[in-house]
Amino acid sequence: MAQVRRLDATSRNDGEASVYGAWERFVRGEDDLRGVRPEIAISWQRCRDQYRVDPHLVEAPVAVAKVDHALEHDVVIAELGFRAASLEHEVSNLGGIVTITDASGRVLAQWGDQATRNVAAKANLAPWFCWAEGATGTNGMGTALMSYTPVLIRRAEHWCHAFHDWTCAGVAVRDVVTREPVAVLNISCWRSELPATVGTWLGNAAKLTQRTLRLRARDDGAELMAAFNHARSRSSVALAAVDPAGRVVLADDTAGVLLGIPGSTPAPDPAVRWKPELPEFIRAAQYAAKQAARNPDWVGSTQIFTRLANEPTSISFQPVFLSGHLVGNVVAFGVSEGDPLPRAGGDVPLRAQPRRMVATRENRMVLLRLPEVSFAQSDGNDVWLFTDQGRLRSASPGLDRLEAELSDSGFLRVHRQYVVNLSRIQEVERRFKGELFLVMDDEAKTMVPVSRRNTPAVRRALEI
């Protein structure tokens, strides 16, 4: 790593002064974020409006004692600790410290310059204290847990004023199946800058560590396929094997038609597993995985609308374990066995609905009420929102994430590239061979295509 540059605690260049001024205004309740990077602005919005973190907090709180993660994640945390410890000498030469946290933001271990560690201890930047965003605001560890790429938090970009002398860079290692964070690797310097190469180094460290999870996930996929074949030999009903994220490892031809995916096509590698375009099915599979992880004897069932069906179909979930570790469920169609899953609109409340969406325009954060958004379109890794304020980049990382956030708020996935606000559909155009196009109510009367596999869900939603 390059030589570190020491900074006086009271000195601020023009860029830092601009960020500090925006921080002061935002803390007072204003929304003027000129000069603030979009990812920082979005984090500040979470800290102020969602988590309500005190910007004048001077130390991190004690982490809760409960540890709740899969056993295989211990291996990942240990490997990450090895990488952090191996960097101790180099980071110490920078006057910095390196830490690892678990998925809750709890600091597990720390290495580096002893003088910096002494300063860090005054802010509880030490083992067994919590640095999640909801506890201590914008910081390298907590904000990394909310991001899919390495993050850099410079001085006044921290939400809490007491941490404005720090510069931190962190990256989250994520489960390759669920995409949930497992741990964070973070490097921090006090009153100094980190080298420009730190982001690349962190990203590479995360990729190397995730190899362990990827290899385990492939073994899990093979075990799910074996469980599917065993169930296939004993039953004539339609079957599918799904992982804890609701993605399909293998389905027979009938189940493939019902789910809108290729049948009899194995996909043990998590990178290529099939995603049914049935949000209700995915939510049920994710719920079933959580229940089975808590209780290995759990079996459950529910009803969903499948592709090409006008009536709901019963499905049941049978958990599959490998060495005591849940790898997914075998789903049987037309079967109702075990505990009933909760249904939205039934005897359990819906998930909390988002009050607004967050987008970015240049260096500003734009807070949108849901009725202002007509539809969202994916373009590679970006998601664009078409709104009453024009075309804006969404803060959500990916259309799948946006779909999950909005599925109970009147938005529907109608195509691989589109999620639409049902209340903003003005007309439905039917073309040759039955293709549907949705005419939105924006000025351009934008026409959004409906994929064939999503047509039944659109017809049900619009009652046509």
Report on this model:
- The chain is of the alpha+beta class and 464 residues long.
- The chain folds into three domains: 14-194, Beta-Lactamase (2-Layer Sandwich); 216-340, Beta-Lactamase; 356-462, Beta Barrel (OB fold (Dihydrolipoamide Acetyltransferase, E2P)), CATH 2.40.50.1020.
- The protein has twelve helices and 21 strands.
- It has helices at residues 14-27, 38-51, 71-86, 88-93, 114-122, 133-136, 140-145, 198-234, 253-259, 279-294, 399-406, 455-462; strands at residues 96-102, 107-112, 151-154, 166-174, 181-190, 239-242, 248-251, 300-304, 313-322, 325-333, 339-340, 356-361, 364-369, 373-379, 382-387, 390-394, 411-415, 418-421, 425-430, 436-440, 447-450.
- A seven-stranded antiparallel beta sheet has the order 13-12-16-15-14-18-17.
- Strand 4 and strand 5 form a beta hairpin.
- The chain starts with 13 loop residues before the first helix and ends with a helix.
